[in-house]
C-alpha cells in the first residue's frame, strides 16, 4: 500500500468521526431532541413504566443519556486517534495511548469552544471532563487488551518451545 493510501486508511476514519462530532455540536437545542427521542423509546419499550416517571426523572434520564453519548463518542475518537497514530504497528505503546488521550482531550476543548458560538449551546468544562473520561476509559481498556494479548502470545510461544507442546510438566 503506498504512503498516500496508507495515510487515508488510518487517518480517514478519524477525520470522518471528528467531522461527525463537529456537525453534532453545530446543531442548536439538541437536548430537547434527545429528550423526545429517549422519552419515546421508554414509552415504546414500557408504557407502564413511562407513566410512572415524573418530569424531573425524565430530565435526569435525558441528562444521563446525553452524557453517556459524550463518553461514547469520545471513546471512539480516542481509539481512532490511537489507530491513526500507530498506523499499522502491531504493538500499542504507552506513548501512543497518552498521545491519543491528549489529542482527544484537546479536541473536546476545541469542540466546547466551538459550541460557544452555536445558538442554544454553551461551552462546558464539565463536558470536557466527561469527554476526557470517555477517552481515558477506552484507552485503558485498549491497553489492558494489548497487555493481555502480549501475555497470551508469550504463553503460547512458551508452550510451543516445550517438548510435547505443553507449558506444564507432569510431576509425580
Query: Residue ranges: pLDDT <50 for 5 or more in a row?
Result: none
The secondary-structure class comes to mainly alpha
In DSSP terms, counting alpha (H) and pi (I) runs of 4 or more, how many helices? Answer: 6
Strand content: under 5%
* Helix content percent band: over 70%
N- to C-terminal distance: 55 Å
Q: Report the order of strands and helices.
A: HHHHHH
Strand count, sense and closure of the main sheet? Answer: none
Computed over alpha carbons, the radius of gyration is 22 Å
The coarse overall form would be extended
Instruction: Compute the average pLDDT.
Output: 88
Q: What is the strand tally?
A: 0
Protein model, in words:
This protein is an all-alpha fold and 172 residues long. It has a domain at 3-28 and 71-162. The protein is built from 6 helices and no strands. It has helices spanning 3-25, 30-45, 47-52, 55-86, 94-115, 125-161. The radius of gyration is 22 Å and the shape is extended. The mean pLDDT is 88.
Write the layout of secondary structure elements.
Blueprint: H1 3-25, H2 30-45, H3 47-52, H4 55-86, H5 94-115, H6 125-161
Tags for this model:
single chain; 172 residues; mainly alpha; 6 helices; extended
